[in-house]
């Protein structure tokens, strides 16, 4: 054996590192890297088309509809006394272990907290606060325009260590989040409290808007009325002062009180934590709604690749999320579970670059932008068949979206919105009328000035279908004579995509993105003139007016708010800065032995969940 | 002996520039990745201005050489920085994982040699027989099988279908650390991932051992041993084995390289919280301070592995020492 030279090894190591890095970006993008030039993309597109045609006959049987799923578990038998629920946290990463609502950032941590942390307020299916939670509330509008909310925590609400949850604990949470040393991202939930600005700037030692009336009553005064006071726009997680009181704010997130012995006042308390992998919970007998039926819960991280096997073997009873694309493959095998379903709080959309941002960060429309003509945008909406996309690529578990306020917001969603249907002839007609005519006879339209029109389309990699879907859209637009090309000739990896869209890369004319809707219908964060997430750089006076009205004191009247958002939904179909393409279903499998399970966000009945037998039901 | 010490010292001195070069390279590569830890935080409630402010505070906007100097001066003081994602010092994040990875690697190595030595010996001793062909076939299959596919198959067969082994994690939830049960559970969780890695990784060692043995058994001193009337098993177990195992021992250091590559896949598939998994996650979520720390540790492990191999080789084979 000869001695390998050291330099060679170092080089080999670096090469390996590069490979691994490349593999990683491919990993998040699964399918992405394969085609580097447009030619092969086109080939791929043709192939997909063939596959689509072949697939059509058998696809009839494999189309599902969200309407066939219930969000509430059908109980099969009577729950027994006690028992342990095995919960799978589906994640390809570990949970970080920042187990406190004030400090966490990762979604896996939020899922772990579901079992032992609870907000003080309950809310209904439209995310409006109700009076059924651990605290009740009362609103008073003051003469000077401020609003005072009186929060009364129920007497029997206690922390897991036996101490009562007090008004002081809630006030303490506001003080920590508003503290200059706090580095988390929750400040927007407390910024409207009177005196918060001065406190946050370090100019005041206390927050003038907080008044502790007695042990269980806190008065919070807000600088002005805004709909969020009634609609999930407030901070409602107290922070136990008897534990965190002595810890400096900047050291709280890494303290043992957050990582090793976290407490809450939810139905279960933390027994053991295996960092990053698993948590065991036991029933909290003193829970304010009554003692939980289960003896405990075991939560462990399960990789998405093996979640179906873990459900089949009964290793886990249910999960926080399930990769929907696996559903058609496993539904016949998993006879021991019931699949619950509801619409996911998200939508996919196509966005058009319409303007620039000026020095103040305000969007200014550019009348010369490639996509400036609304007729072009409307024709592009007419040209795509999103129901077909949903059926072919997602087995019907995604479907055509209409409004930017999704149907989950039953109160605000406008169901009869008049959106452009799939109609290529109409698209052709609109384009002809708007002056987009094929001048040089190559089958592709030129712009009204007779110049060549190439629209650059940015789309993200991720999942097996990302590429065929992008190609489908490109094909569909080509059929109405529009020349659309992928930016760089390939899909963009997540970080690259957002870096470039945010930086207003001039090579991008349109892009495909997705938004989670959150729980507030307020759209200012995404579509207002000043919003940094307004990636189209869209702005109009009517839009400003409606978005402001929707968040104004008048909108405390929900009727009025609904009317405003109905108008806004119509405006979006008229002006089309973006158009929504797909709504999504989320499916959650639950073992048949589990009773009382529910996946709706406003459900607060975890303490009533039981199991019918000790061992999981097997297929 | 004096020569050898000289060699070792010289060899150790050479590793320092290697480490510095490594740290610069990996720092530059981490910079080249698009996006940063805050890119993924796309939440309309957290406006771009707030993110920009955080970037400024975290020093993400400084030029790379400023950050490199910051980073290196931290390392010299034993401070690897703060993990953005875990919100705690990188040293603490890494410590837990290093321990897990260390045990996984150790058990894998043990399995690797437990498999390699008998197979290599048999294959070399009875070369060109059916047994040898079978073993060689296995090694070729092993060479051709990617570890990430093989590990998935192993989970599926032994984890889910047969249910012999746990399928994820490093220990059963709810056990008290420090108890016997806890350590047994840890070991039980190690077995399948370690075996998956060892079965693939061992094939190169089997091949080396086989060809060494075939090579050695035709040497003159073996013929002499036989002529002196040594029994066949003594010839193989004492004379041939001893002479063939030395190059394998030297190869030991380089096994670490394979271990690290393997662990990145295997830990992900078995959801085993070790360094490999930490590495992948941190790259995807752009937790740079952790990525840098992990790669640096990987790099050090490899350089030390190479150093170890060279030292063993220099002991075994004096020719190496001659300049």
Q: Mean pLDDT of chain B, nearest integer?
A: 83
Count of helices of chain A? 18
Radius of gyration of chain B: 24 Å
Could you name the CATH class of the largest domain in chain A? Alpha Beta
Please mark out the parts of chain B with pLDDT under 50 across 5 or more consecutive residues, or reply none.
Answer: none
Structural class of chain A: alpha+beta
CATH topology of the largest domain in chain B: MetI-like fold
Strand count of chain A: 21
CATH C-level category of the largest domain in chain B: Mainly Alpha
Number of E-state strands of chain B: 2
- Tell me the helix content of chain A: 25-40%
State the fourth-level CATH superfamily of the largest domain in chain B. MetI-like
| Gross morphology of chain B | globular
Mean pLDDT of chain A: 86
Strand order of the largest sheet of chain B: 1-2
Annotated CATH topology of the largest domain in chain A: Dipeptide-binding Protein, domain 3
Largest interface: A-B, 71 and 73 residues
Topology order of chain B in helix (H) and strand (E) letters: HHHEEHHHHHHHH
The 3D shape of chain A can be described as: globular
The total count of helices of chain B amounts to 11
CATH architecture of the largest domain in chain A: Roll
